[in-house]
Amino acid sequence: MPLNPRDPVLWAVVLGVLLVVGTVVVRSGRDPEPATTALPTTTSPASPPCGAIATTDTTGRPLPEVLLGPAGRVHDAACRRDLTALAAEMEESFGGRTPAEAVRALDGAPEALPRVARVLEVPPRVEQGGHVYCGPEGDVVVFARGTLDRPGRWSLFEWGGTAGAAGWC
What we know:
Blueprint: H1 8-28, H2 65-80, H3 83-89, H4 99-107, H5 112-119, E1 125-127, E2 130-134, E3 140-144, E4 154-158
Antiparallel strand pairs: 1-2, 2-3, 3-4
């Protein structure tokens, strides 16, 4: 049976095939997604068991919820060695670095993540600029105080032996 060029069914099929082929060609010819700074991921070495974050400051007063949420997320991410989650909690300028640079530094120091978790288990000092956690190993974690329209975020981690840690605690 010959094809009738005036048959609407034939044209519907041809149009459908052209749409499918066009979609495939357009998708395959698309520029690759813009390169993003890939954050390293780490799964080893295993962290020691983590305790609970501090819920009171050094004077025994309960910590505000606006701090407990971010501090808990940082602690949990450090315990799980989830560098992407840690980067999401960092200030845009984290101790003078971008979050991606800071995460690379953490990834390059296997002892750093367990130390982040441990220092958050110690009650922080409350200062005008935020909450300062001083760990027993000379480590410091700072959560900057926020404003009415911008909550404070994790702004610094320095561990014992680094130049910056000594000035905080």
